[in-house]
Amino acid sequence: MKYQISLLVILFGFTIASAQNYLDLARLNVGNTTLEDENGNQETDVTNFNFEFLYPTPINDKTVLITGFTVENTSLDFAGAAEFNSEGLTMTRLNLGAKISHNSKWTGTYLLLPKIASNFDDLGGADFQFGAIALLEYRHKNRFRTKYGLYSSSEEFGAIITPLLGVYYRTPNNKFYIDAAFPIRMEANYGLTKQLSLGADLRTSIKSYNLGGGVADTYVQEESIRFALYAGYSFMKDQLIVRAKAGLDTTDYGLYNTGDTVGAQVLTVALGGDDRTRLNNEFASSMFLGFDVIYRLDL
């Protein structure tokens, strides 16, 4: 079983984990913050819920099929847009693909990522989006690997293109590791004891949600950066991990008319410029609290 699982790279919620010494089969992230608009005139309570599940199916000694799903929900009010009520933004996505061992040094992970992202009010074609990711990993040593990849997705504002550059390293005493796929995720963890650990993580995403059932056809562009420090405790021989987190949430939720697009966007930069008319005020950053529950297998 460990030999089969060790062939797999995991993708979770627009994030990628390298072929590290563990595999997260299920992961729940919950966070809460209060965001103000940039003018300080309105504030909204924001609760973010993200659940990810992975099921690996080995085909042979070089290929593992990857199947899984991601569900994310964010509830908030739109600052400065009085005609819009509180919204529940929901993203449901399938993660379908394979990891292939090309040789002793290189492995590749290739995934198709169809999704529905909207307020689930009067579903239609605009609620469906499609993404894909390719990630190559180079093994320097057992404890050190580098990653190179590209993520792209069709969004309401246009196409998002995200180059990926990552690293995985674990110290010889196994007390510290860093696992990152910049710019979308990073996790650094130091074990104080066999069960207690301290660490930091970074989660970012850029995605859109179609809003149906309103007075106008609109969409939300989410640009999210969440950085947190955490304390973790493991149970069941390190298979179940619970973390308490506190950090900085700089997520912004821009409201735009449907059809008001930028074309292609690399990270946060619109290649053709951005002359859209925003319908709400920008949100200012704020502290957030949260927790993670992870079901993990050591390899």
Structure overview:
The chain is mostly beta strands. The chain has a single domain (2-298), classed as Porin. The chain is 1% helix and 67% strand. It contains one helix and 19 strands. The protein has one helix at residues 2-5; strands at 10-12, 15-17, 22-36, 43-58, 63-76, 87-101, 106-118, 128-141, 144-155, 158-170, 176-182, 185-191, 196-211, 218-235, 240-249, 252-257, 263-266, 269-270, 286-298. It has a 14-stranded antiparallel beta barrel. Strands 1-2 form a two-stranded antiparallel ribbon. β3 (22-36) and β4 (43-58) form a beta hairpin. The radius of gyration is 20 Å and the shape is globular. The N and C termini lie close together (9 Å). Mean pLDDT is 86; it is low at 1-19.
CATH topology: Porin
What is the CATH C level class, in words? Mainly Beta
Total strand count, please?
Answer: 19
What is the CA–CA distance across the termini? 9 Å
| Lateral strand order in the biggest sheet | 3-4-5-6-7-8-9-10-11-12-13-14-15-19
Q: Indicate the overall shape.
A: globular
- The CATH architecture name reads Beta Barrel
Q: Count of helical segments?
A: 1
What count of domains describes the coordinates?
1
The ordered H/E elements are HEEEEEEEEEEEEEEEEEEE
> Which class best fits the helix and strand makeup?
mainly beta
Radius of gyration: 20 Å
User: What does the average pLDDT come to?
Assistant: 86
Spans where pLDDT lies below 50 across 5 or more residues: 1-19
The percentage helix is under 10%
Determine the strand fraction and express it as a percent band.
over 45%
Largest sheet: 14 strands, antiparallel, barrel
